[in-house]
Write the structure tokens for this entry.
Amino acid sequence: MASQPPPDSTCPDSLRQKAESLFRAGVDAADPYKAVARVLQIRDGALHILGDDGDPENSRSAPWKRVFVAAFGKAALAMAKAARDALPAELFCDPGLAVTNYENAADATNTEGFTVMAAGHPLPDAAGVKGAQAVAEMVETAGEGDLVLVLISGGGSALIPYPAPGLTLGDKIATTDLMLGSGADIGAMNTVRKHLSRLKGGGLARIAAPAQLHALILSDVLGDDLSTIASGPTVADATTFADAKGILEASRSWDTVPQAVRAHIEKGVAGERQETPKPGDPLFTTTASTLVGSNGVSLAALSGAARDAGCEVQVWNECLTGEAREEAEKWVAAALAAQNERAQDEHGGTPPDTPLAMVAGGETTVTLSGSGRGGRNQEMALAFAIAAEKAGLSGDWVFLSGGTDGRDGPTDAAGGIVNGESCERIRKAGIDPQAHLADNDSYAALKASGDLLMTGATGTNVADLQILLLA
């Protein structure tokens, strides 16, 4: 992993390298192979699936005849490999199926025993429809006495689009695109997706019956609501068609989504379309889930690594949400306050050369008003640099905002890593930082200053991590 080397930067390389190292520690804590391997255990010749955080007290076991494995999401390949390595050959129903994004599928090594399918993300594509159909067909093959083991990770919602009857992939793409541009959060987006899909919102669990089902989930959703992660294909859905309509109206998208989507949702509200299975449905007596990783786990690992590196650590926000540029301005204000407090109390006994690490985890949003390119992490990094310059944040500092999946929006960057000279470097390249922020063109601005965080696909996804180091 490496960011671009900043041209003419006066930022100490060690501070930038330290920020990147801490980010990597957070990403490594979400290693999907280890997360799955930790909860699949063979004891006394039987498969035991441990509970959340590897809790053996809440393990699940049964004399299953066959185990069908379906993995989808950005971490699908590593999770699939872990399941294959853990399951006895006589149980594993070969081949399993793994659906992931193109970047991760390009590195599909050591995936024996699985059919690997690549699909589009963040916008779904025709390849994803084929992947979703393949998942449904495989799951339908399982019968009573079998187990369907579903491995879910970030991006799963977009990677297995299976439009409801009467809808096309184009209808779903247009709706998703409009919602992304409206600044809708992931919970709102998934409520709508569930009601346009055959698999989401418990649909996959419905198809799997009468086989038993267990999902191992690597969460990319703040709060780890299982009904929201990948739009909850294996759990009950408390949302309704009426909720979906309300969200589209509130985001001012209702009148612009395809007519077929409006008609489908209207029929659902009227009771003319089958609702998603709700809490209390007997269907879920044979299903269960284990949360194997999350943003909180990665944030804790990042914080621990910062302490080990000799930093004073402050967790600024464990659930960072809101508009990216607005949150950046708030963070700058908090950084100034922390800097002044440390100066006034003479570091409160902390050695003066001890850097302060202010860290956060979460997922901000961007409301598109311009025509540029970028993602929420790049926008937050650019906005932080601009706000810090205006506020006069002094001394050596580095701010990093990155997506743990290695891809921020429709770009090849994971995010941005800026310092006190970033805005000046952007201007030297003939670019106005504020104008590019207004045009949602953070990618071009950060590329010009050498401040893009480039990691490549990481094979996991537990939302975003942010680090501010004050020397």
